[in-house]
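Human: Respectfully, please carefully check these tokens:
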Amino acid sequence: RRRKREEKMTTEKKEMEVVKGLDLERYMGRWYEIASFPSRFQPKNGADTRATYTLNPDGTVKVLNETWDGGKRGFIQGSAFKTDPKSDEAKFKVRFYVPPFLPIIPVTGDYWVLYIDPEYQHAVIGQPSRSYLWILSRTAHVEEETYKQLVEKAVEQGYDVSKLHKTAQSDTPPESDAAPDDTKGIWWLKSIFGK
């Protein structure tokens, strides 16, 4: 019996499988955060959290992350690029420049697409340490059955999904320029890379 348990432990922590042949153009646009692993750096009441991706002419991706807390919009911008341009695996590095530090310091983290549905409507994002997990959707709300299936994808990749926390999303997503900006914005970066 002990051997069986040891085998289970090793299979759970096997290398994560990532999406191959991701169509980057189809992946661009706005994604809403349906659930994520909470971070002590993130505002506890952060709502309407979302990411908007735009393809640059050089093949890199412009990243805009936004959240709203107490009527204020927190955001951070950065860029993403393939970890290995020759690989067909959806493993990216995301780099953010952190203005409050002088000189401006770039902070880089991993962004692995673990699952994408055929219609590019839902995605599961992780990184190698399994400390961070995001469930994203093109819509601000998903059906409970769909959510369960997405969570199951994370379980298959060895994630402890008991830490997943659903993100509050409004029925009418806020406009980016309709709220005062929260200039502290540092939490994004810490939450994204677990630094």
Remarks:
- The longest helix spans residues 144-156.
- The radius of gyration is 17 Å.
